[in-house]
């Protein structure tokens, strides 16, 4: 028994094989959980037991980088239910009263050019983002109560998602025969975003984003209920294939 071209990198253990059956030259590949041997060998009838050396198989494991609590998603604040008169400059001034901002943007309808009554602010730190939420959420601008929250819960604030708020949102959802399905939602879309978007086309009764059971992860779709069939039809006509958070949404009757 002879094995050619075998260069051991380091030894693992010795194991003895007894071979008595004549076989032709072939390629032998032997693999264990820890060791791998691949070589061309020649067997002959009546071969005596041969000793084969195995080499350890080093397995590289890729370590995932630790989640960064200061990642952009943890510093990005949603600001909803703002008046249509508020532009980027005004929203920037409002936000920067409470923290340093990297970017502030009001979202506009690409067809009409009108404000969609919400925007986003990327703050320089999680602390700045939390300060904006604390100071602005629930305040009134031109008679409208502003809704402010983080687009993604900061990882540093909790090791596991707090589901109580999401569960209360689900239980508060008001069903209605005048309901639309909203599909292909980005993971950052919230209940408030749906309400703000669809309220431009009719009187919204309720809205919700469906979640994977037992988690805070979006299922990628949601529902919005209206008070009349006319509002349903107007919403489908105006918002199907429109963009929300960078993704083209699907809207149809539920």
TrEMBL record:
Record keywords, A-Z: Chloroplast, Plastid, Repeat, Ribonucleoprotein, Ribosomal protein, RNA-binding, rRNA-binding, Transit peptide
SMART domains on file: RRM
Transmembrane segments: none
Domain RRM, chain residue ranges per copy: 75-153, 178-254
PROSITE patterns membership: RRM (PS50102)
Any one GO molecular function term: rRNA binding
CDD domains from the UniProt entry: RRM1_PSRP2_like, RRM2_PSRP2
Main location: plastid
One cellular-component annotation, GO: chloroplast
Location in the cell: Plastid, Chloroplast
UniProt similarity note: Belongs to the chloroplast-specific ribosomal protein cS22 family.
Database matches in PANTHER family: OS02G0815200 PROTEIN (PTHR48025), SMALL RIBOSOMAL SUBUNIT PROTEIN CS22 (PTHR48025:SF4)
Assembly: Component of the chloroplast small ribosomal subunit (SSU). Mature 70S chloroplast ribosomes of higher plants consist of a small (30S) and a large (50S) subunit. The 30S small subunit contains 1 molecule of ribosomal RNA (16S rRNA) and 24 different proteins. The 50S large subunit contains 3 rRNA molecules (23S, 5S and 4.5S rRNA) and 33 different proteins.
Protein name: Small ribosomal subunit protein cS22
Protein's organism: Brassica napus
């Amino acid at each position: 028994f002879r094995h050619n071209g075998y260069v051991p990198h380091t030894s693992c253990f010795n194991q003895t094989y007894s071979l008595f059956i004549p076989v032709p030259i072939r390629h032998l590949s032997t693999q264990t959980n820890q060791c791998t041997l691949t070589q061309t060998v020649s067997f002959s009838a009546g071969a005596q037991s041969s000793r084969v050396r195995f080499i350890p198989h080093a397995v590289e494991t890729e370590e995932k980088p630790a989640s960064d609590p200061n990642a952009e998603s943890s510093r990005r604040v949603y600001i909803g239910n703002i008046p249509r008169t508020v532009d980027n400059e005004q929203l920037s001034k409002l936000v920067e009263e409470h923290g340093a901002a990297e970017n502030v943007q009001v979202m506009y309808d690409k067809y009409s050019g009108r404000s969609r009554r919400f925007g986003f602010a990327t703050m320089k730190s999680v602390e700045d983002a939390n300060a904006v939420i604390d100071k602005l959420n629930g305040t009134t601008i031109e008679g409208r109560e502003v809704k402010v929250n983080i687009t993604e819960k900061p990882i540093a604030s909790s090791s596991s998602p707090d589901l109580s708020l999401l569960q209360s949102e689900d239980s508060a959802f008001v069903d209605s025969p005048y309901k639309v399905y909203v599909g292909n939602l980005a993971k950052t879309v919230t209940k408030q975003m749906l309400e703000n978007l669809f309220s431009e086309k009719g009187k919204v009764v309720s809205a919700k984003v469906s979640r994977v059971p037992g988690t805070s992860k979006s299922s990628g779709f949601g529902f919005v209920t209206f008070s009349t069939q006319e509002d349903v039809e107007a919403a489908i006509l105006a918002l199907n294939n429109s963009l929300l958070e960078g993704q083209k949404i699907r809207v149809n009757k539920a």
